[in-house]
Amino acid sequence: MEVILGAGADGGNCGVVQLYQRAARGYDGANHHNTTPARPMPRKMTRAHAAILYERLSASRPDPQTELHFINPFTLVVAVALSAQATDEGVNRATGPLFKIADTPEKMAALGEKKLGKYIKTIGLWRNKAKNVIALSKMLVEQHDSVVPRDREALEALPGVGRKTANVVLNVAFGEPTIAVDTHIFRVSNRTGLAPGKNPLEVEQALEKATPDAYRLHAHHWLILHGRYVCKARTPECWRCVIADICAFKEKTTEPKSAKKPAKKKAPVGKLKTTVKKKRTIKKKTAVKRARK
Fold it and tell me: Are 78 and 108 in contact (CB under 8 A)?
């Protein structure tokens, strides 16, 4: 999830900083009124443990991939730009039909904001995103011959594209060993002690130092998927975490026990009637025997 408030780039708005601070405490930004004081910054993980962390994450997910659907570098840029304050699943539902008719900057620009809005209106901040997508499509046509640039500065100059989006595009589309820091990665990096930081840029720079070269290419995906499915914001599933023993997070959770016993299966109506009849017959026979005696 990337956060874009207004038309600014990701990471420059104070609201974004507050969201990432909540992520460091273990929240994903859903509760905007939380006043829980920030936890002390965890002790930084050693290089030896960092290598073990990546070794285990890579073993659990040998071929990590982005969960956003895309066709080419251009549709990847659009998908990531649309993912601000939205789930990948929600973005994929919207972009499936959209990319069938607009998979190039020219086709997207020809749609216009109004028609584009009909495809993405289920996504948060869709009006602002539609404006940015049309604007970046026109800029790609006019300034880059409709080709997505393989350059961070040029990518960040596109409307609605900030450092995180640029890192994702460079990594996924062009195979650059960049690490895009979203709230999941920010949380995992701080919780584990792998790369503590007060803001996304600090965490990104710390990850670049802590991540062994052999794991740099897929580091972004391993960390984000681990944060999304195991090291969750509100209730991390530490009992099934492959790095729990080297993680600096002190409030580790245990596997929850089922509070309710499985309900007994009810007999079908037909069988129930038969059972009642049998019981009545048995009672009658017993009464007759006693009377004869």
Answer: yes
